Please model this.
Amino acid sequence: MMAVYLFALILGGGLLLLSLLGGEGGDVDVGDLELDGLGDAGDLGSEGGDASASKIFSLRSLIYAVFGFGATGALLTTLGLPRPVTLGGAIVTGLLAGAMVSATFGYLHRTESGTKLGDEALLGLTGRVVLPIERERPGAVVVIRGDRRLRLRALPHSSGEGEPAGWDRVLVVEVVDGVARVAPLEEDRLLDS
Model:
């Protein structure tokens, strides 16, 4: 049985190493292989952000499961534990490793954690003024993007009518040098369009 564990350890470890060395957008990123138009093999389940059981069987999860199975089996065999205990421990550890990786990447994908927002991702967001904005001195606004609340430095955009100190809700029109240029959000205008 040790040969099976070593094979799984080498196969899973090799694919894991290729995935890590491939980096973001790398040619050998086996965690994100495209398979015959199925899209991201890391997301072979149903579409959307749900945590369906089919997402556990992604290529990325399978690689971690094989590695966890092989590593645990080889370790427990080396420690001299009985064959049924070793096999059971290897199977449980492999399944847990695959499920944990699937859950972790699913969470990161749903919440967009770890992604760096570009200025263009902020355009069109609405928010509330939390520090009054003046014509020459930036204030602050809070916008919500996905599950994240972002606090942005803000100056009035040239299209904004009225005195910025009286604005409560605003729309991000552009971002210049990390400072949001905002205009007042008028409910009447939203209803008319």
Remarks:
- Confidence is low (pLDDT under 50) at residues 24-56, 188-193.
